[in-house]
Amino acid sequence: MGNGKGGGGGGLATVLRAPVAARTWREFGFLLVGLPLSTLYFCLAITGVALGAGLLVTFLGIPVLAGVLAMCRGFGQVERSRARALLRMPVAGPAPVRAGKSGALAAMGALLKNGSAWRHVLYSVVHFPWAVFSFCLALTLWAYGWSSLLYPLWFWVFPAYTNQPGLQLFQNDEYTFYLDSPVAIAATCLAGLLVTLATPWVIRALTGVDRVLIGGLLGRSRLDDRVRELESDRGVVVDTAAADLRRIERDLHDGAQARLVALAMDLGLAKEKLTENPEAAARMVDAAHGEVKVALQELRDLARGIHPAVLTDRGLDAALSSVASRCAVPVRVSVDLPAARPVAAIEGIAYFTVSELLQNVSKHAAARSAGVDVWKSGERLLLQVSDDGRGGADVRAGSGLAGLAERLDAVDGVLVVDSQEGRGTTVTAELPWRARP
What we know:
Layout: H1 2-17, H2 22-54, H3 61-86, H4 104-112, H5 115-149, H6 151-154, H7 157-161, E1 167-171, E2 176-179, H8 182-218, H9 222-273, H10 278-306, H11 309-314, H12 316-325, E3 331-336, H13 344-365, E4 370-377, E5 380-387, H14 400-409, E6 414-419, E7 425-432
Parallel strand pairs: 3-4
Antiparallel strand pairs: 1-2, 4-5, 5-7, 6-7
Helix pairs in contact: 2-3, 2-5, 2-8, 3-4, 3-5, 5-8, 9-10, 12-13, 13-14
């Protein structure tokens, strides 16, 4: 009950504060300034497009149209700045126009083929009638509401300066009605109060349409956003591949390569002692044989880290079971996938995701057991790794989970971490299912 009353009181306070709130005044200013600006945009855009279209029979039409498009993109910059300042609406600008070649003709051609530039022209044309309507409605309601609400403070002007008892509401041949009686003054004030309280919400509805127009016609298109996302993902993929190459190079240099160099030296010494001390040479050859086995095991581990043979030959089920068997805690593995396998890239990312998560379980979770579940849902491949450890994992902490999330995002994947202190960790990964041809 107490919460309900508090909510109702808060709603009433919001309604009463709305006419004098800073947001209302900013949005009202946006609508007032919008009409002269929109009139300028409309006149210049219509004139420029008509002139350019008429001159297309000559070469002059192309530079005229390109100039109009560039001008309208400038209008869009003004409108986005106005929306940020008065509507508190951050709008990302469209991608810059890039010409494939240098030169004025290439630049004009890129402008003429640019979809966002034509959307700016459309905004300059379409927004004008809406600006006229919203300006007239907002200004009328604002002026009537405040003048009527404050009528008791200024109605004395009529008897003092116009020889009328009050504001004349209407007149015919036999009767004239003035707002001069206490009842009429109170009714006028009440009507003004109602209009004043309603006006901010009408203004918000009007600016809501402006938000849609600005966001839809002057902001980045979905294609631009997708291009930016793909460019970012490509950078992540390149960085990840470079990091993997550096890791492989480091492992080879510090591991197998160092062992093979030491092995070559040991075999050289054994060769020298073969005639002088065959027994010592035999012991050195035996030690070298052990080093060969260790080097081979390191190379196998390195190859498994690049792409395990069991994954290629037998698929995720067998590969994940192999990874789980090397975990420091018992791991339950459940794989429910159709016979058709995903493409090798998705399968490899799924394998390494589970492998890295199980490594985190072994090193950081202090868990007694863990579980791996893999299944297909629609056109998505889902992986879930859970443990009963200490919890507290956070993908935002800049740990390996953050890099794993970036790697999944590069292929339109998602990583979700649910980890509460003392209640274990559950990491769910979602990847696109791309079936092999």
